[in-house]
Write a structure and sequence with these properties.
With about 270 residues, the chain is of the alpha/beta class. The chain has nine helices and eight strands.
Length: about 270
């Protein structure tokens, strides 16, 4: 039983063969996929995909939020729309979090003040509805930690974590899991591999970030699209670093996710 905690299968890259992509995932034992919405225009489509494919992927679920890379075209009214969407889907058994939200300081042309405003307002939504968050973290760890201490939420997942050991410990103390995916599969990812061994096994979540962050074996391929069926193979890299069996890792991964995303218990 594998659970992909970050997978954008609503992305245009999957529009022509989504059924095949999900069939391959199911064949590889992927029983859970979290689809984080990235903009208000996508909310209903994400829910439609979840409803349509729940018989094939039993623990498929979704979160709702405005991604920092989508803040340039976002408007303040999107926060009101997001609140209304949360209210609309709060009783949906597969709605588990607010996200994908966060800060991206790697892309230099983005307006940091606007990003921070959207992050703060969505933290307030998560706080008000007692929901965890799925968080985008890129070159912004300290500022995210500052905001999380100001506006307290129940926790969540720090997606594609690549910060310091001290920053990782601070996220863990705030009830966040550290998300690890395809970057683990590269020999040169020494810092990621060290982070994967530093903390208790209860500190981590596995993800693909499909269609992004392609694992190492795709780099020589003409098409580098990542997909959820690769999660077990990505997990092999993590299991090797931890000297843990794949069977145990799959179980621990789901236990960890269920702890920080408690609404998942509705799908068991």
């Amino acid at each position: 039983m594998w659970f992909d905690t970050h997978c954008h299968i609503d992305a245009p890259e999957f529009r022509d063969d989504l059924s095949l992509v999900l069939a391959r995932a199911a064949e590889q034992g992927v029983t859970g996929i979290l689809i984080p919405a990235v903009q208000v225009a996508d909310y209903d489509r994400v829910v439609q995909i979840v409803d349509q494919w729940s018989s094939l992927i039993p623990q498929i679920c979704f979160s709702l939020g405005v991604h920092p890379l989508y803040t340039p075209q976002a408007q303040e009214v999107d926060i009101k729309i997001t609140r209304q969407a949360i209210e609309k889907y709060l009783d949906h058994p597969r709605f588990v979090a607010v996200g994908e939200i966060g800060l991206d300081y790697f892309v230099t042309h983005l307006d940091r003040k606007k990003q921070e405003w959207f992050f703060e307002e969505q933290l307030k939504l998560a706080r008000d509805f007692h929901l965890p968050i799925v968080m985008h973290v890129r070159k912004s760890q300290d500022q995210l930690l500052k905001k999380l201490r100001q506006i307290k939420v129940t926790g969540g997942i720090a997606h594609a974590f690549n910060g310091s050991f001290v920053q990782a410990q601070q996220f863990l103390e705030l009830n966040f899991l550290l998300g690890f995916g395809g970057t683990m599969t590269y020999d040169r990812s020494l810092q990621i591999k060290r982070l994967a061994k530093e903390f208790p096994i209860e500190s981590y979540a596995l993800e693909t970030d499909s269609p992004d962050i392609p694992p190492s074996w795709l780099m020589d391929e003409a098409v580098k699209r990542n997909e959820p069926s690769y999660l077990p193979r990505i997990a092999q890299s993590f299991a090797k670093e931890r000297s843990i069996s794949l069977e145990e890792l799959a179980i621990v991964n789901f236990q960890n996710i269920s702890r920080v995303l408690p609404r998942l218990h509705q799908l068991l």
